[in-house]
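Entry 12.
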Amino acid sequence: MAEKLTIPKIKKRKGQGALVVVTCYDATFARLLEQAGVDLVLVGDSLGNVIQGHANTIPVTMDEMVYHCRCVARGLSATHLVGDLPFMSYQASEEQAILNAGRLMKEGCVESVKLEGGRRHAALVGRLTEIGVPVMGHIGLTPQSFHGFGGYKLQGKTLAAEKALKEDARLLQEAGAYSIVLEGLPGDLAGELTESLSIPTIGIGAGPHCDGQVLVLYDLLGLDERFNPRFLKKYLNLSQEVLGAVAAFGAEVRQGTFPGPEHYLHSARKSDE
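Predicted 3D structure (tokens):
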């Protein structure tokens, strides 16, 4: 079995080789990701888009996050598991945030939590870290701010925005975050942020100069032919494979060729005489 990837080991990976992070939501895929050598698995509130079919992550609840984190945890042994704190699970008060982060760790079995935002949540990151809840930060295009941004738009395009993001990153690091996701940023800015920090950065739509990269498993497998953002590379076109397989199953059922003799048991009844 591979050696457990702990928070101190993740931090030591800064500048020592890119961290591979993949988002998934169930035990079967989690098991496969670990076999493939992924470093960290993130249970993202992106499940609102990918699993539930919402237009954004806003509707996702704590109960749903706990459920999916617990499912993924059952598929992992050595891989580090991170869970997203969903919208309005940490914004109302420090007490609420602590209780919900505790739920993700106690009930969801995660080893760290991720929350969005820089300076406005730096004090919270410090408090969580102080009580033993490791925190991954997330700045730039933060999906829970979807409505405020007016959609999924590139961030950090002005000098003022760059300055604010650099301050956000610095404050999160000082508060004790062990890594920071940089999403939807110009590649050169993400590189400057990565260079300025002593903790790893994880990029998505932020160019090649981060300390790691993250993609949603369903996206990199090409399970949704409608989803084609610029940052995404599809390593398979699995939507077509699934369509073909299910169509073949349906055809065989309708033709009466499935199940065949090899797919079921045959009775070996003996005479009563």
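Annotation: The beta strands are 19-23, 40-43, 80-84, 112-114, 135-140, 179-183, 201-204, 212-216. The chain has one domain: 7-237.
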